[in-house]
Structures are given as structure tokens and as C-alpha cells.
């Protein structure tokens, strides 16, 4: 079986093997520590992930967007979705093209007959 981990060349197979191990092992229950850790990540919905921030709220002139400090979960979810689209458009527009193509495919409500 041939597996690709990306379009680049490595000096040996060890790093590629580690990438595959990490990608598979993290799916095992208990490995991530929190079962919800792997549910909201890049590519889960076909987009790159939104920016993440931590404390302090201001660091070296950079501030956490006020919406993230607001406690308004709906506004935070909307901000995250918008940022995910912006980042994907800037860094991997091909993913947006794939999502659009998948969304444009007709959905058939016909039942298949045996």
C-alpha cells in the first residue's frame, strides 16, 4: 500500500512513519487526554483551523479579539467560522474549491432498488 503524507521529499522513511503513527494513535480512546480534543481541528469541516489565543489578553502589542473575551458563545462560534474561512482562502484556496464542488453536487432522494 502506498500512502502520501504530502508533496515534499524527506531524507528517510522514519519521519513519514512517525507522521502516520501520530495520525493513527491519536484516534485511540484516551490518547489525547480529553475525548473532545480531536473534534474541532483543521480539516474536520474541510477548512483550516481558526486562530487560537491564550493568556495574557495582551502580549507584545498583540491583543486577543474582544469577541473571544465576551462570553457570547454564539458570537465566538461565528468569529471562529469566519476566521477559518479567511485563513483557508488565504493559505489553501483549493480546499474551498473542493467544499464548493461537494456542496454543488445534486442530492438524490431516490431509493436504490435491489
Short structural description:
The protein folds into two domains: 28 residues, no CATH class; 65 residues, tRNA(m1g37)methyltransferase, domain 2 (Trp Operon Repressor, Chain A). 42% of the residues lie in helices and 4% in strands.
Overall pLDDT: 86
CATH class of the largest domain: Mainly Alpha
Task: Say what the CATH topology of the largest domain is.
Answer: Trp Operon Repressor, Chain A
Tell me the strand percentage band. Answer: under 5%
What report would you give on this structure?
With 114 residues, this protein is mainly alpha-helical. The protein folds into 2 domains: 9-36, no CATH class; 40-104, tRNA(m1g37)methyltransferase, domain 2 (Trp Operon Repressor, Chain A). The chain is 42% helix and 4% strand. The chain has 4 helices and 2 strands. It has helices at residues 13-25, 66-69, 73-91, 93-104, and strands at residues 58-59, 62-63. A two-stranded antiparallel sheet has the order 1-2. Helix 3 (73-91) packs across helix 4. The longest helix has 19 residues, at 73-91. It is extended, with a radius of gyration of 19 Å. The model has no long low-confidence stretch (mean pLDDT 86).
Amino acid at each position: 500500500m502506498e500512502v502520501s503524507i504530502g508533496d515534499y521529499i524527506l531524507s528517510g522513511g522514519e519521519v513519514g512513519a512517525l507522521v502516520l503513527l501520530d495520525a493513527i494513535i491519536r484516534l485511540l480512546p484516551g490518547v489525547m487526554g480529553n475525548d473532545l480534543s480531536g473534534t474541532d481541528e483543521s480539516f474536520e469541516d474541510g477548512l483550516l483551523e481558526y486562530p487560537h489565543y491564550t493568556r495574557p489578553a495582551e502580549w507584545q502589542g498583540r491583543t486577543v479579539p474582544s469577541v473571544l473575551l465576551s462570553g457570547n458563545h454564539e458570537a465566538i462560534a461565528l468569529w471562529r467560522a469566519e476566521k477559518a474561512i479567511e485563513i483557508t482562502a488565504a493559505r489553501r484556496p483549493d480546499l474551498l474549491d473542493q467544499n464548493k464542488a461537494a456542496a454543488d453536487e445534486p442530492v438524490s432522494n431516490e431509493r436504490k432498488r435491489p
